[in-house]
TrEMBL record, chain A:
It comes from the Bacteria. Gene3D superfamilies: 3.40.630.30, HAD superfamily/HAD-like (3.40.50.1000), SGNH hydrolase (3.40.50.1110). This is FkbH-like protein. Residues 596-621 are annotated as: Disordered. SUPFAM superfamilies: Acyl-CoA N-acyltransferases (Nat) (SSF55729), HAD-like (SSF56784).
TrEMBL record, chain B:
Residues 1-80 form the Carrier domain. PROSITE patterns: CARRIER. It comes from Streptomyces dysideae. InterPro entries: ACP-like_sf (IPR036736), PP-bd_ACP (IPR009081). This is Carrier domain-containing protein. Gene3D superfamilies: ACP-like.
Length: 621, 82
């Protein structure tokens, strides 16, 4: 794997981000020694082209963390982020959190603690129950430190459950006493996990669970004795991976689409050779393993993952098998796009991405064939690959262990997403028979609702800010905490945009964050899902904002455009909406005097000022 | 025996050179590790890379007693029973 390190060093020395395939190779590596090397090599990484998502991380530890920073950096770059990691001084855990002594602009505060922070200095091994008050007290102190830290930052603070070293347990000769201490320790870890439920800005990685699952030793006694290092490289890597998953979800770097093969992946055997009755699915092993994968895939879909069927087969027998086989759990309608033909899978994935209006970067591809994975890797290096060859009992773990689809919180739109994208595929077919865009949009029965965000829409608005790269005018990614704060701020406004048409309800697909004074309203950012681009929705939003500003007595509506490597589709938006370019990426509009940019097929029908406003296309409009 | 130690020595030079940011040739010319940036952080990095690369576990006091790359190679050869 020195090739991987060499490739990373080359990228660093030539001043650009490692290519997508290199990043995915890095993400797929579990060797701590290699990753600490990779993390060191990546320390001077720059990304002038803006291919990676910047993330600022403060590491705050109550113990020595050794290679943790390097491992975390390697994991974050593997996920498509450009990390800037700062470490708080050794031995200053409490002080750093209590006084906000970390990088205030951090996106993440990654904490590392070991058992010594919680255990009493002199544990009574004969009476472990006597430690109960001390443990409760330490948990309460930690809660206070978290409260203090969060009062100074919008960052997400990441804690973890803490393993109790075996030698502490085993020093107790009384089985009953040992059980009592174990119970106290579980209670402590439960208290840590509860902090994630109590604070929106806290996430807790279950390090104890990860260690057990991976079979990784928590501690190397030599390094603990010599360097006060409480965790092995393997344990630190598991923790770094947990933090990476939080970062990935927060930054919107998670994937949305699972493109999955059929033969020897979703069932055992080749349909064309053994027929529907002959495939291994359900019943005893190995059929039960394939059915377990189908159940997992269905669970992912129920949580918003879009499914694409990718199979080299004749479509009719596949349709029939999926519809009629009694053990199939994934019926044809669960797939938002079906690519069953004899074309190249890379080409099919490209077409599926186009149909769904998503990039290849949002895709995970699972296939048992090394040839198919290789072809996709060569042509679409940004697609994440999951190997489905080998042991069928490992299929589920292979699919989910990477955390490709993690989100901070499921929204209603997330859960409906597969259906929305299925409708989008149907809509694309429908668009073939119209002479003009306006005629097509009219026949769509388009309905656009623009309204002030309520607390229920905050999570979705923040998710759009994190995930939207193309129609993202300024790149400012307002998170859930700052968006919620704006709802109560009279100088701010957050609007959400919902779109529906004859094929389905897209849900909330856009959001605008606005700063407002008596004279001037300024759009801090406007984002719109690429799902609805090309329907004039963005101009309806500009028109709505202008009318709302005019009603409030403002004479000026301004906006900005900050170019990024991915938002060229939005370049020129303000000018097209009738805004005057002021230079430096700023644009201005005179509400009430300049023509309303709302498209003719989306008639303005505002309610009372600051109230929900519905623009409904009249029949035949 | 000496050939095997020599072969291990080549790898040790590469690993330690990589950790210290110098070439194997630099280490041959100045084999005393303390003459390079051999501090507690780099030595633990070297320990991790050597243990992972050779699949061995070393006694920490023996590891710290090794003053040169050659002594380190001999230590690893012993751990490998060669």
């Amino acid at each position: 794997m020195t090739e991987l390190i060499d490739a990373l060093r080359t990228a660093v020395s030539t001043g650009h981000a490692p290519a997508a395939d290199i990043r995915l190779a890095l993400a797929g590596t579990d060797d701590p020694a290699l990753l600490r090397k990779a993390g060191r090599a990546l320390a001077p990484l720059t990304d002038p082209a803006g291919e990676l998502r910047p993330v600022r991380v403060s590491v705050v530890a109550g113990c020595t963390v050794g290679p943790y920073e390097a491992l975390l950096r390697a994991r974050l770059v593997g996920a498509g982020a450009l990390p800037k990691i700062t470490a708080a001084p050794y031995g200053a855990f409490e002080l750093t959190l209590a006084t906000g002594g970390f990088d205030a602009a951090s996106d993440l505060i990654a904490c590392v603690l070991d058992e010594s922070w919680f255990l009493p200095p002199e544990l009574d091994f004969a009476e472990p129950q006597s430690a109960a008050d001390h443990l409760e007290d330490r948990l309460r102190q930690l809660r206070e430190l978290v409260t203090a830290a969060l009062s100074t930052t919008n960052a997400m603070l990441v804690l973890h459950t803490v393993p109790l070293p075996g030698h502490v347990r085993d020093t107790m000769v009384s089985l009953r006493a040992r059980t009592a201490l174990t119970r106290l320790w579980y209670r402590l870890n439960t208290g840590l996990l509860e902090l994630a439920e109590e604070f929106d800005q806290v996430q807790v990685v279950d390090l104890v669970g990860l260690l057990g699952d991976a079979g990784v030793r928590a501690r190397d006694e030599r390094l603990h004795a010599y360097a006060d290092l409480p965790y092995t490289d393997g344990a630190l890597l598991l923790l770094a991976d947990g933090v990476r998953r939080v970062a990935q979800a927060r930054l919107g770097l998670s994937r949305k689409v699972l493109a999955i093969d059929l033969d020897n992946t979703l069932w055992g055997g080749v349909l064309g050779e053994v027929g529907a009755e002959g495939v291994a699915l359900g019943g005893l092993y190995p059929g039960k393993s394939y059915q377990r994968l189908q159940r997992t895939v269905r669970a992912l879909r129920d949580q918003g993952v879009i499914l694409v069927l990718s199979s080299k087969n004749d479509p009719e027998p596949v349709e029939q098998a999926l519809s009629d086989h009694p053990e199939v759990l994934l019926r044809p309608e669960v797939f938002s796009a079906s690519m069953v033909n004899w074309d190249s899978k890379a080409g099919n994935l490209r077409r599926a991405a186009d149909t769904l209006g998503l990039s290849a970067q949002s895709m995970v591809f699972m296939d048992d064939s090394a040839f198919e994975r290789g072809e996709v890797a060569a042509q679409l290096p940004e697609v994440a690959l999951v190997d489905a060859s080998g042991e069928p009992a490992q299929l589920v773990t292979s699919l989910v262990r990477g955390g490709w689809f993690d989100v901070m919180e499921l929204t209603g739109t997330d859960r409906r997403r597969p259906e929305l994208y299925r409708a989008r595929g149907l809509r694309k077919d429908f668009s073939g028979g119209f002479g003009s865009t306006e005629e097509y949009l009219s026949a769509l029965d388009l309905k656009v609702v623009i309204e002030l965000a309520t607390p229920f829409g905050v999570a979705r608005a923040a998710q759009l800010a994190a995930r939207t790269n193309q129609f993202n005018l300024t790149g400012v990614r307002f998170d859930e905490v700052s968006t919620r704060a704006m709802l109560a701020d009279p100088t701010r406004l957050v609007a959400v945009v919902s779109v529906a048409d004859r094929f389905g309800d897209e849900g909330i697909v856009g959001a605008a964050w606005v700063e407002r004074s008596a004279d001037t309203w300024h759009v801090l950012n406007l984002v719109l899902s690429c799902r609805v681009l090309g329907r004039g929705v963005e101009f309806a939003v500009a028109g709505w904002l202008a009318r709302q500003a005019e009603r409030a007595g403002a004479t000026r509506l301004t906006g900005a455009f900050v170019p990024s490597p991915k938002n060229s589709v939005a370049a020129g938006f303000w000018e097209k909406a009738g805004f005057e370019a002021l230079g430096d990426g700023l644009f201005a509009f005179a509400p009430g005097r300049d023509p309303d940019p709302t498209p003719s097929w989306i008639p303005a029908d505002d309610g009372p000022a600051d109230q929900a406003t519905t623009h409904e296309l009249p029949a035949g409009g | 025996m000496s050939e095997i130690v020599e072969e291990i020595g080549q790898t040790v030079l590469t690993v330690i050179g990589d950790v210290l940011g110098c070439s194997p040739q630099d280490l041959r010319e100045q084999p005393v590790l303390a003459a390079h940036d051999w501090d507690s952080i780099t030595s633990l990095e070297a320990l991790a890379q050597l243990e992972s690369g050779f699949g061995v576990k070393l006694q920490l006091r023996d590891f710290h007693a090794a003053r040169t790359a050659d002594e380190m190679a001999a230590l690893i050869a012993k751990a490998l029973n060669r």
